[in-house]
Amino acid sequence: MCRLEKWHMGLKPKGEAKAEKIKGSMVSRPRMKLWLIRATTTVLLWTCLVQLTAIGNMWGPRVLKGWPSCFTPSAFPTAIEKPSSALPALVGTEKIVLPPKRIYKNNGYLMVSCNGGLNQMRAAICDMVAIARYLNVTLIVPELDKTSFWNDPSEFQDIFDVDHFISSLRDEVRILRELPPRLKKRVELGMLHSMPPVSWSDISYYSQQILPLIQKHKILHLNRTDARLANNGLPLEIQKLRCRVNYSVLRFTPQIEELGRRVVQMLRRNGPFLVLHLRYEMDMLAFSGCTHGCTDEEAEDLTRMRYAYPWWKEKVINSDLKRKEGLCPLTPEETALILRALDIDQNVQIYVAAGEIYGGQRRMAGLSASYPNVVRKETLLESSDLQFFQNHSSQMAALDYLVSLDSDIFVPTYDGNMARVVEGHRRFLGFKRTILLDRKLLVDLIDQYDTGSLNWDDFSSSVKAAHTNRMGMPSRRIVLPDRPKEEDYFYANPQECLTHIVPSGRQAV
């Protein structure tokens, strides 16, 4: 009776339960084998697919290279549309097929923090890419200066097309937006070796002293990157890579380039135009100690500003002596006099590429009287167009850079970073006319003219004669062994990347 109740309640005899258990295990084993076979087959197929994709990238037909891959980030398309630009070197709507990724043993990770203004940082980025390529390390997208005088909060991607920067250098160096998570955590915990590299170093310094540090620490942070690579004495491939980064890879964001095109189109509608890089701004005058033409109150303000910045090491400055040595930017009044002496048409449009001119309209009055068609981005564009750029001086400088490249004549009144980098870029675009003013000679001629010891005709003739060979034409860079700061700057005359070079001597600056 009890047994019947248990049976009806679902309980089975021991023998029958044991037989069913054995039967179940026999059924599960084939299933387990089938699952293992499927898993192994899937892994093998994925491995083959990855290998075929890698081979296709290097040697495969063009159709294979167009296939999407789940291992390829969306930021790295196989082809990208190149936006049009006002600049000859950047014009075009053709699709650019990206080069295959360069395969190499990664020696570590390089982080860099740039310092200075836009063009100082631009040159530094070019140098750091070349160094990363030479050392076979992974470069993290550079950090831009946010603590300098300009106090610009812009990130790299706010100024430059970061996707183009990363993808167009695939065949040279691996670039990441940020460190891998494990290494990023180390940096957040302060486990990071940081240092400034030695200025004007050749590539052997980086291979012999910097590379061992990267290999030891896995990550190295270079915290000052301006002028850290020599002008001369470098392998040709290094020089050419610096040019490639500067003239092809470092492209401004679509928003900046589009606004630059609009400004150029506005100017072109009224004929040829000249870009005047008038570096008569408060920061430059304070830094250089140049107060010629300023009131006593203005001179005191500039001196106070110089003392307020501890990294501006030179404090006591003789303004008159510095001006006579040609180490001051020309004033707006001096600039107007020189343009007239060079027979620049007084009806030409002059686009002033600069920040706020120190002294405002009072100091610009003489230039505006001689050249009534003086314009700025602020007068050409609506305030709504520039609203996005407010308090972002590097982005404003990028706009001026684009307009400067496309101008018929470019005239810098001081040889700062923008003047020199634009000069070199215009050489690269076909030796476009760039008037490189000999300030030491000019201030002497101006003083003679002002005192009446030189009449206008003689003054004008002397100015023209002095600048016949200072128009940005082909020339050789001056090399001064053991004095790299005094020799010609690579980015002002990248002769290794140009097609027409003067065989010997120095016929032009």
UniProtKB/TrEMBL annotation:
A Gene Ontology BP annotation from the UniProt entry: fucose metabolic process
Top-level lineage group: Eukaryota
Bilayer topology term: Single-pass type II membrane protein
GO cellular component terms given for this protein: cytoplasm; membrane
Pathway noted in the entry: Glycan metabolism
Location in or out of the cell: Membrane
Keywords on record: Carbohydrate metabolism, Fucose metabolism, Glycoprotein, Glycosyltransferase, Membrane, Signal-anchor, Transferase, Transmembrane, Transmembrane helix
GO MF annotation list: glycosyltransferase activity
Similarity section: Belongs to the glycosyltransferase GT106 family.
Protein name: O-fucosyltransferase family protein
Organism: Dioscorea zingiberensis
